Amino acid sequence: MKFAILGYGRMGHEVEKVAQNLGHTITAVFDIDQPFTVTSALNGAQVLIDFTLAATVPHNLSIAAQLGIPVVEGTTGWYEKLADVKNINGLTMLYSPNFSIGVYQFTKIVAFASRLMGSLDSYDCYLHEWHHTGKADSPSGTAKNLANVILENFPAKDKILTDTSYSAIDKKALHVTSTRVGRVPGTHEIGFDSVYDHITLRHEVHNREGLAFGAVRGAEWLAGKTGLFTMDDFMQDMNQ
Q1: Strand-pair category, 198-204 with 187-193
Q2: CATH class of 101-204
Q3: Which residue of the set 2, 108, 131, 225 is catalytic?
Q4: Is the dihedral of CA 128, 129, 133, 135 positive or negative?
Q5: CA-to-CA distance for 83 and 178, rounded, in angstroms?
Q6: Which one, of 106, 188, 207, lies nearest residue 140 by Cα?
Q7: Which of 69, 83, 144, 218 has its CA 20 to 30 A from that of 122?
Q8: Angle made by CA atoms 13, 59, 88, in degrees to the nearest 5
Q9: Average pLDDT over residues 134-140
Q10: Domain extents for the chain?
Q11: Does domain 2-98+208-238 have CATH number 3.40.50.720?
């Protein structure tokens, strides 16, 4: 297949490598030195894979819709604009805060564990994530998604606290915290704690290749479709 890449940073390079290893062709690359505009030449690209900055996402998606190219949107931190994005006429998009297939399955495990542990009144829970110092958003998009999954399934929690707590924390608040250090690709940990024991669920990314692999497989899946899709749509077919 033929793909175009928007954003030629670390993830853009990883997407290019993975796509080529899977036998695909990169027909166009857009970045600061080669802006993505309504006059951009796609050279036959069937899907655009976007890993850029949150502030540019609505604009980039609007251009993609005008050019008639579907988008795999892997940028994080823009979901407060999702309602506006959904109103872009002619947009076809597969979007996710994390395209790692392992993270998707981990999210399902967290949902199940939250229901299981949330049915007891003796457990509290937390979420902590680690990423490299170049990470643009905090908490990560994946952490925010996991936090919402916990809230949906753990009755004792009804709000999210991402700030440092300088006093006793509201017991109904799920504390979501972050560390930015070195070159850590990404780690997310959920803990369930009681006076009797502690249970930890942890997902550690070895490298960015898994994210790129999921995005490229998502692009393969998206080609030829129309509409707005999430990882649930994509993975439903993958798991069959």
Answers
A1: antiparallel
A2: alpha beta
A3: 131
A4: negative
A5: 27
A6: 188
A7: 144
A8: 115
A9: 90
A10: 2-98+208-238, 101-204
A11: yes
Structure tokens at 21: 């290893």
Can you give the pLDDT at residue 169? 94
DSSP per residue, 134-172: T--SSS-HHHHHHHHHHHHH-TT--EEE-SPPSSPPPTT
Exposure pattern of 72-107 as b/e (b: 16+ CB <10 Å)? bbbbbbbbeeeeebeebeebbbbbbbbbbbbbbebb
Task: Give the C-alpha distances (Å, rounded to integers) separating 125 from 1, 10, 117, 156, 226.
Answer: 44, 33, 9, 9, 39
Which of 24, 135, 157, 203 is an active site residue? 135
Rounded CA-CA distance 136/156 in Å is 31
> Mean pLDDT of all residues in the chain?
95
pLDDT at 97: 86
* Residue 77 pLDDT: 85
The answer for residues whose C-beta is within 8 angstroms of residue 143's C-beta and 6 or more apart is 127, 129, 176, 178, 188
For the segment 65-122, what is each residue's pLDDT rounded down to a tens digit? 999 999 999 998 899 999 999 999 999 999 998 899 999 999 999 999 999 999 999 9
Per the annotation, the verdict on 131 as an active-site residue is: yes
Closest CA to 48 of 64, 24, 32, 25: 64
